[in-house]
Specification:
Number of helices: 2
Radius of gyration: 14 Å
Oligomer: single chain
Structural class: mainly alpha
Helix content: 40-55%
């Protein structure tokens, strides 16, 4: 089993995948789960940590889905979108 996973968000309904990813990170963070560009699982994470992260991720993904469907996504986007900190070659 891989030790890290990544979520990719596609452009949809005129909203960039980057904007969706930024909102996903923002909303998870406000609920107490920090997810950077990937999900790194290690032995220090308890089963409860993993269950909580999955629960919050599902909650946020449902929120984003509903916001896209209701055309309200742009109203809650952060001012500055997430960007890579390190230059990739």
């Amino acid at each position: 089993m891989p030790h890290k996973t990544f979520l990719n968000f596609n452009n949809t309904d005129g909203i960039s995948g980057n904007a969706i990813r930024t909102l996903f990170r923002q909303e998870c963070f406000t609920r107490g789960v920090f997810l950077g560009y990937g999900h790194f699982i290690c032995f220090s994470h308890t089963t409860e940590d993993i269950k909580r992260t999955i629960k919050i991720s599902n909650e946020v993904l449902n929120l984003i889905s509903n916001m896209i469907e209701d055309k309200k996504m742009k109203s809650i986007l952060p001012i500055e979108l997430a960007r890579d900190v390190f230059k990739r070659y």
